Amino acid sequence: MSESTAKPKGLTKWLLGGNAVLVYLFFYAPIILLLIFSFSANRNVGTWGGFTLSWYEEFLDNEPIQDAIWVSLRVAIASTVVSVVLGTMAALALERFTFRGKRVFDALLYLPIIIPDVTMAVMMLLFFSQALDLIDTVFGVQFTKGFTTIVVSHIAFNISFVSVVVRARLAGMDEKLEEAALDLYATRWKTFRHVTLPLIAPGVAGGALLALTLSLDDVVVTQFAAGPGSTTLPVYVFGLIRRGVTPLINSVSVVMLSVSIVLVLLSLLLQRSGGSGEGRANPDPDESEDPLDVDDTGIVDDGHDRRPITITGG
Amino acid sequence: MKRTRTTTRRTLRLAAVPLALALVAGACGSDDDSSDAGDSGSGDTETTEATEGTEATEGTEAADGGDAGSDMATAECAVDEVDGDLALYNWAEYIDPDQLQEFADQYGISATMDVYDSNEVMQQQISAGNSGYDLVVPSDYMVSILIASERIQPLNQDAIPNLANLATEFQGLDYDPDSTYSVPYQAGTTGLAVDTAVVGTDFPRSWGIVFDPALADEFSGAISLLNDPRETMGAALKYLGYSLNTTSQDELDEARDLVSSARGNLAAFNTDSADELLTSGETAIGHGYSGDMFTQILETDGGTDQYVYFVPEEGGTRWIDNMAIPFDAPHPCTAHTFINWLMDGEQGAALANWNYYTTPNEAAKPFLDEDLLAFLEDPEVIAGGEESLELIVDTGDFEINYSDAFTEAKG
């Protein structure tokens, strides 16, 4: 918007530059050290003992760690898919509609973000233990905590994060585009599918990545929602330090880190292509394609449920 | 395991490094059919099936009967009876996964192990009910808490004939004198490890080498003490000739002044890497846990020739981790069978040879690794004899005085 391309000069330039260097150093120096020491032959973290790949070999041989990674991944993917759908729906409802109790719902949605992990964890523990008792009494089926309960607890906090991110995107989007689609006889669903969703896609993708990351990271809530056979990687690694920290933990972390970097790059790429998709969705001439499709179906359809005109008017 | 009650959050962050992990590694790891941990996660069905099969057991009934049952019944199990899969809740790396698999194969069930990093996390899981675990491994003081709150069930000793293998020094323990609720799993002590290259070989086996200025000043800057109120105040109390569970404020104050005066000679108060500081040469005398120190010493070049671990003659801490069955364990008979199986000589030895802690299993001794046996049998390791050791007992409201005294001593 404003022409803020002026370059800082003199002292300001140096201070800003120095600040940037410090910030990046602060972020990345520990990571670089972690990386370096994952190749150290000395079993003491922090003491260099020559180059070795043995910690990576041990990592590949270590069954409990691999089981834990597998559990973590499945939990993360399952909880992300569900929370993205529910979170996006919640965001749409709150951003586009007014309904009774909206304010309360709005405030309550943020609660999981605000309350401390431990509180959430203990709530989950009590909830699952009571719920399982109830299921046992009512249906006579005994379930134990495990994979499913971890997924449910992760969905519970992820919905909030996803909906916050998606709402930010929705708020910045021009509602007139939707109105235009509706004007052109697109049904609500068609409008969502061809106009709204492409426009908020980067927000949805961002929310999904955030959810994935939070789920893969979580220790406290997971520890309390877990049951037999469902130890996740962070919980396992946290337990491992009781035996002392060896570079094995570094190697696990480096692998985790590499994958997360790949994920971040992917999401950047995705957002870029999402960006061009946005361009298409803009009221360009080419965009008339989509509404045309819509119009086709619209014609086949009987006209009863078309109420675009009222909506535009309102 | 180390019994520090304060948990370090350091590695939490490390572990929490975003994520994501290892799609790669996950893919590699996904197809190891040999382990059950992988599939049981997916399997509520599996668990459910097994559970239904068990509904008849008394253990389950007693548990369902609710939180109240002061007259909790023991499970009616025969020797070697299994009533479903085993869900073990244990400290990380405390049993060889292959050994657990061996148990599963032998009894035709599957066995999974989940890990916790503090007694308190395990306590919360068990206390809420419906944890799904069949066997847990609480430390000594936690056993008394779990007994008092009726969160673990009395054992059916008829189903554990190998209880006869329990070494005499592990019988009649204060927290569970008749093994009514728990059977020792592994144990250890807290003491000092020294680097003889620096300290020489004729050092006094006394807490004096860290607390007596006449002895300690020589190693100034090369001594580390545990960063744990009960352990370090306990060491000072022992040196002064008091109980490490004292509730006398005067004795505690005296110990506080002692630790405070020793501070000038310390390199660090360190719990997580006392063993590493020693073998990397940063310290010459380290206060630490037997299992950690011993494992570290064996893996270092100088080995037991250069490094010596001992509990000073004034005495020190003994800690014991125990097997116990949660009040609502779905498969109490499998749990009894597992306890009995681990109390077998060869299995007990396999356990100790893998984690290198002290075995409470007398019958295991003939099968122990030489190194480990030499360490366990060496009379000089526990310089004051078994009687000089004390379990750390929960002092209730006085706990805070220990924390305060330690904080003051650290300055």
State the helical fraction of chain B: 40-55%
Largest sheet of chain A: none
* Helix proportion of chain A: over 70%
Oligomeric grouping of the chains: heterodimer
| H/E series of chain B | HHHHHEHEHEHEHHHEHHEHEHHEEHHHEH
Number of distinct helices of chain B: 20
Distance between the termini of chain B: 28 Å
Mean pLDDT of chain A: 80
Radius of gyration of chain B: 22 Å
* CA-based shape of chain B: globular
Give the topology.
The complex is a heterodimer of chains A (314) and B (411).
Chain A: H1 10-37, H2 54-61, H3 63-96, H4 102-114, H5 117-139, H6 147-171, H7 175-183, H8 188-217, H9 220-225, H10 233-240, H11 247-281, H12 289-300, H13 308-313
Helix pairs in contact in A: 1-11, 2-11, 3-6, 3-8, 3-10, 4-6, 6-8, 7-8, 8-11
Chain B: H1 10-15, H2 23-30, H3 37-42, H4 44-54, H5 58-64, E1 86-91, H6 97-107, E2 111-116, H7 119-128, E3 135-136, H8 140-148, E4 182-195, H9 196-199, H10 208-211, H11 213-216, E5 223-225, H12 229-239, H13 249-262, E6 266-269, H14 274-279, E7 285-289, H15 290-298, H16 303-306, E8 307-310, E9 316-324, H17 332-342, H18 345-355, H19 370-377, E10 389-391, H20 399-410
Helix pairs in contact in B: 12-13, 12-20, 13-20
Protein model, in words:
The complex is a heterodimer of chains A (about 325) and B (about 400). Chain A has about 325 residues and is mainly α. Chain A has a domain of about 210 residues: MetI-like fold (Orthogonal Bundle). Chain A contains 13 helices and no strands. In chain A, helix 4 packs across helix 6 and helix 7 runs antiparallel to helix 8. Chain A is globular and about 70 Å long. The two termini of chain A are about 30 Å apart. By secondary structure, chain B is α/β, with parallel strands linked by helices. Chain B has two domains: about 200 residues, Periplasmic binding protein-like II (D-Maltodextrin-Binding Protein, domain 2, 3-Layer(aba) Sandwich); about 160 residues, Periplasmic binding protein-like II (D-Maltodextrin-Binding Protein, domain 2), CATH 3.40.190.10. Chain B has 20 helices and ten strands. In chain B, helix 12 packs across helix 13. The longest helix of chain B is centred in the middle third of the chain and has 14 residues. Chain B is globular. The N terminus of chain B is likely disordered. Classes of the chains: A mainly alpha (about 325), B alpha/beta (about 400). At the A-B interface, helix 3, helix 5, helix 8, helix 10 and helix 11 of A face helix 1, helix 2, helix 3, helix 4 and strand 1 of B.
